[in-house]
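Progress report, Aim 2. The chain analyzed during this reporting quarter is listed below.
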Amino acid sequence: MEESLPETQPEGSLTPPPRVPPTAVATAAPLPPSSPRRPLRTRPTGVVDFVNRALDQLDTLADRIAGAVGLR
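Predicted structure tokens for the chain:
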């Protein structure tokens, strides 16, 4: 470990390491291949479709109640 320490100045304080600009250590390479994309579902099915229809019915009911009470 002592061999990795910087040289000391005659008065005993450490000298800072020299400032060198960063250099590139790699060369340009082509981009890696893109990951395969999963196809998007175009239409909800099963449980999702049931939940959507149930929420639509609840929204319609809430609109009717709000209209009857005079909130809209």
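The chain is about 30% helix and 0% strand. The CA atoms of residues 56 and 62 lie 10 Å apart. These observations will guide the mutagenesis work planned for the next reporting period.
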